[in-house]
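# nightly structure sweep
# worker-07 picked up a monomer target from the shared queue
# config: single-sequence mode, recycle default, output format = structure tokens
# input follows
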Amino acid sequence: MSREASVGTEERVAKLEARVEKLERIIAAFGAAFGVGDDIADDAELDGKYGNEPIRRDPTERFWTGETFVGKRPSECTPEYLDARAKYLDLCAKLKEKDGKQKYADYDRRDARLARGWARRLRSGWQPPPPKPRTTSSNGANGSSRSTGGGFGARTNGAGPFGGDASFGRQAPPPPPSEPEPMGDDDFNFGHNATDSSTEDYDDDPPL
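# output follows
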């Protein structure tokens, strides 16, 4: 290749690169004007605490006319739906920002970023992890263990828990009743003001 041809090729490449840069600036300006963002959530954000929350509202018909995904998580949606959701939320964020509602605009931009992140993840063939197997206790379904030690009703030196014989839960017979002592005059309070008034100001009589 001659020197003139080499110089001509370099000039054409330089012109093409300048055109590409110009087109990229135009596309970026167009996206900013219409609230279309290109921020995409990474795996750390998608797998975070708020990275896969249920969807509360579908995009308007201007952005989406397919089936509803309200109540579903982004990981359960189609990539096409998530694309539409991201564009819708970007526009919502733009309008809220104009109204001075910056906090809510930031929320919409975050959700749009998550939608784009899930759309990219689903298109790459991502599959949800298999559910973890449930573990059961070897001592029963409720995880309780049966003890043969000295619990309630256990054998202790040949006696039951209340001094009876060694049978489970059997109590010793109660002692015979003792002779009642004679009652004096002070014992007849007829249940009235049973609490000692000298120690507690208490009166269980109904109000008059």
